[in-house]
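Page 42, continued from yesterday. The earlier attempt failed because a stray header line got pasted into the input along with the sequence. Redoing it now with the clean sequence only.
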Amino acid sequence: MPAHDDRRYPLPRPDDDPRFCFGLAYDVAKVLAAYGYPPVTSGGDFTHLQQHLFQAIYQQKEETL
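This time it went through. C-alpha cells are written below.
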C-alpha cells in the first residue's frame, strides 16, 4: 500500500471536467452490481452515488472572501 504522501486523490477541483459525466457514475454503478451489490435503480440512489464519487475525486472548493 502506498505511503500517505503518495496519495493522488482528491484532485484539485476544476471549474469544469468533461471526464466527470453521467457515463462515469453509470459505469461505477455497473461495477458495483457486478460485484454483487444491489443495482442502482432509483434516481435518488444514482444522485447519491454521483455526489459521493465527486467528493472522492475532487477536493472541496476553497472559499474566497
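Notes: The mean pLDDT is 91.
Reminder to self: strip header lines before submitting.
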